[in-house]
Amino acid sequence: MPDRVLRLQRIARATAVRAPARRPVMIAIAGDSAAGKTTLSGGLATLLGPGRVTTICVDDYHRYDREERRKLPFTALHPDCNYIGIMEQHLQLLATGEPILKPVYDHRTGQLARPELVCPGDFVIAEGLLPLHTKLARACFDIAVYLDPPEEIRRRWKIDRGVGKRGYDKHQVEAELQRREQESADFIRPQREYADVVVRFAPISEREDPPGTPLSAKLLLRPTIRHPDLSKVLAGDRRWTIHLKLDREENGRPVDALHIHGYAPREDSQEVEKAIWAQLGLEPGDPIHTLGHLANGERSEPLAITQLILLYHMLDESR
Amino acid sequence: MPDRVLRLQRIARATAVRAPARRPVMIAIAGDSAAGKTTLSGGLATLLGPGRVTTICVDDYHRYDREERRKLPFTALHPDCNYIGIMEQHLQLLATGEPILKPVYDHRTGQLARPELVCPGDFVIAEGLLPLHTKLARACFDIAVYLDPPEEIRRRWKIDRGVGKRGYDKHQVEAELQRREQESADFIRPQREYADVVVRFAPISEREDPPGTPLSAKLLLRPTIRHPDLSKVLAGDRRWTIHLKLDREENGRPVDALHIHGYAPREDSQEVEKAIWAQLGLEPGDPIHTLGHLANGERSEPLAITQLILLYHMLDESR
């Protein structure tokens, strides 16, 4: 029946001509549970504004609710526990400017709720556990980010959130982390390989930070996409705040490692932010203050600078 | 950014090559509330088997739940009350053999529930209020059917169902019918024009049927698709049971009107059914008894014959 498909394509195209779908810039933010995905994406979404950015969480593609999962031999991290094929389909639709009716998983109740209409803005941020799991899903993104905190820090974040925000006790969260470990290793962490930018918030290993020092950030800027020319920003007197180091990954591939120091004086970091902001061709002004917000209400300059680097890529792709 | 779309298409195609999506035969059964859509489609689905047939109800694309609709100036019949664009998108996906995550409207509770995965079988029956509302939706179907009972009969069916099965009182159902009338006229009945087959169950007007006589059926077989050659079935001595009449529609277009008489003796009708069955190239056997079942548990030979005509089209398109 090729005639019907032809007719379908012709009519679909004729319809599209009336309102041509604009292809949005697609960014993936992948990482394990409590790796800081929402903290990273939230600032970008706020800065660009909800009218321009559409954020989706691909954990909404969970196939089972919490109750059903209890009887299953795998956790929510397992691809079989998610509608991966539908996630791919929806990412393709968004990448070509089409709306989707997205499923909704309610983290609060653990239930699957009524789906919601999502129309892509100029930018689509897809964050979650498995956005980079398949080749087709990866092909949907212009920029792929993987959040890679050291496990002990992620555990602490996971426990803080589980106990504070979701009302579990510490042992419950620890048991859950234990239950998920094998699937993290099998399905979540392998996505790190496919990221254009790997982001690691951690203390600097070379020195002992005094208590209360914000975490530093290390960004692997892989040559899979064209990164901003930071030579002006990285002028000699800023090495204390930020510096770029040519490195090799474990697999031997060359990579740029951008180090952003949490111990640098805040005003120095903010100078760097302004310099990147200017290089983005943006007007000096307010929006920059929407970056760098941590979930606990505190401010992190390394987070703000990381967000600016990602913002660079988003704006660059949209040009 | 055309490069990304190219890459997407290439990877999507490479993935599809591994498991080529088979394009199903698509049939629409459109009609107003309580026009008999499920009765008509149910027999076909049972006969062909759930493994081969996928039935979806496009009323699942309701945008609002019953509670929300109370505050709105239109009823569930209005296109604005439905995700028509998503319905089109999902019909296109099904028509090209792709799965969908279909929204679910629960008629019992009036709420929107968690969506469900639908993988198209060899045949997809899409029944509901608005499957033929847009050009793109219509382009998805191989066979389009519109159910067109006289309004007084549909009202009786609607009241019977509303009172018996859904627990409303008669006046509530009548008020609802009243509230929906304008939108029926504006959006539901115009779909009749786009059907390949218009089905009307009604008493024969030329004579007074004794009480208890099953309804007759009149099928407009429009020349928009190739209809079965019924010349053998319509041999002279069967005129009492079934006959074909060349006619003109109100707009002047030529049409074949197939009359199937409810007052014909059951054995005569069943002879006709067997003749059509044989012409379909199917083995004589049991499955034929799954046709003709009314919602009240009774049997209607005109319904069975109507279903056989539609079955002819479905099998014909699949060859």
What layout of secondary structure does this protein have?
The structure is a homodimer of 319-residue chains.
Chain A: H1 2-18, E1 25-31, H2 37-48, E2 53-57, H3 66-70, H4 84-95, E3 100-106, E4 111-118, E5 123-128, H5 135-138, E6 143-147, H6 151-164, H7 170-188, E7 197-202, E8 216-221, E9 242-248, E10 254-260, H8 266-279, H9 301-318
Parallel strand pairs in A: 1-5, 1-6, 2-5, 6-7
Antiparallel strand pairs in A: 3-4, 7-8, 8-10, 9-10
Domain Phosphoribulokinase/uridine kinase (chains A, B): 26-203
Pfam families (chains A, B): PRK
Protein name (chains A, B): Phosphoribulokinase
Q: Could you characterize the architecture of this molecule?
A:
With 319 residues, the first copy, chain A, is an alpha/beta fold. Helix content of chain A is 36%, strand content 20%. Chain A has 9 helices and 10 strands. In chain A, strand 9 (242-248) and strand 10 (254-260) form a beta hairpin. The mean pLDDT of chain A is 91. Chains A, B: This is Phosphoribulokinase. Chains A, B: InterPro entries: P-loop_NTPase (IPR027417), PRK/URK (IPR006083).
Give start-end ranges of low-pLDDT stretches of chain A: none
Query: What is the SS-derived class of chain A?
Result: alpha/beta
Q: Topology as H/E string of chain A?
A: HEHEHHEEEHEHHEEEEHH
Taking all residues together, what is the mean pLDDT of chain A?
91
Mass-distribution shape of chain A: globular
Question: What is the subunit organization of this protein?
Answer: homodimer
Strand order of the largest sheet of chain A: 2-5-1-6-7-8-10-9
Our estimate of the beta-strand percent of chain A is: 15-25%
Number of helices of chain A: 9
Q: Determine the fraction of residues in helical runs of chain A and give it as a percent range.
A: 25-40%
Total count of strands of chain A? 10
Distance N terminus to C terminus of chain A?
41 Å
How many domain units of chain A?
2
Biggest sheet of chain A, in brief?
8 strands, mixed
Rounded to the nearest angstrom, the radius of gyration of chain A is: 21 Å
Q: Largest interface, counted with CB-CB under 8 A? A: A-B, 37 and 38 residues
